[in-house]
Every structure is written in structure tokens, then in C-alpha cells.
Known about the structure:
Shape: flat
Oligomer: single chain
Order of helices and strands: HHHHHHHH
Strand content: under 5%
Number of helices: 8
Distance between the termini: 41 Å
Amino acid sequence: MGLIDRLLASNDATATLRALADALNAEIPTAAKQAGRYDQMVDAVNRLPRPIMALGALLLLGYAMLDPAGFSQRMTALANMPEALWWLVGGVITFTFGARETHYLRNRGAKPAETAKTEPNAALDEWQSTRP
């Protein structure tokens, strides 16, 4: 019997894991739990630019080590790219990360607004219960 089997067999470890899972589940906003497939896809796509850029930089380093002549040719081609195109690329990258950073700076201490209490709506409750 391995260490993990012994840990999972004990009631203390199981209770601790259950408490940890409950705490993590409480951290996820209700709206995120009920998000549809489209919202989940958009959230996933919005998380891609930084990892892709970091991985691209690492791949460029690897490419430079594996094929220095080919890397040199491609860097020469990039050096011949018009300056206006470099400004455009820089602007797109700046606005992508600048908008994200500005959003987080502006909403740093903001708390979500309280929603007004409304009377029960049977039709709305029925419709929400049929949603997947």
C-alpha cells in the first residue's frame, strides 16, 4: 500500500481534501459556473496571448540554436519589414496588454454592486431550471 493510498484511506485526509475542494468551489463565481460554452470558449481564448508569446520566444531561442543560418535569414527578413508595420504590431500588443492591465487597475478595490431584490418570477425560475 503506497503513501497516497494510506493518505486517502484516513478520514482526516479525506476530510481535509473535501474541505479544500469546497473552499476552491466557493472561490469560483456563480456566473462562471453557469457560463455557457461560448463564454467558456471566449474566456479560454482570452487567456492565450501571453503564454503563446512566451512559448514563441523560447521556440525562437531553440530555433536559433538548431539552425543558425535559417534563423539569420528570417531575422534579416524581419529587419527589412517596414517601420509602419512594426508600429502596428507594437500598437496591437500594447493595447492588448494595456487594456487588460487598465481593467485590473480600475477594478482593484471595487466590489460588485448589490442587485435589487425583486419579487419572485415563476416563468423566469422555470426557464432557468431548464437551462443546462
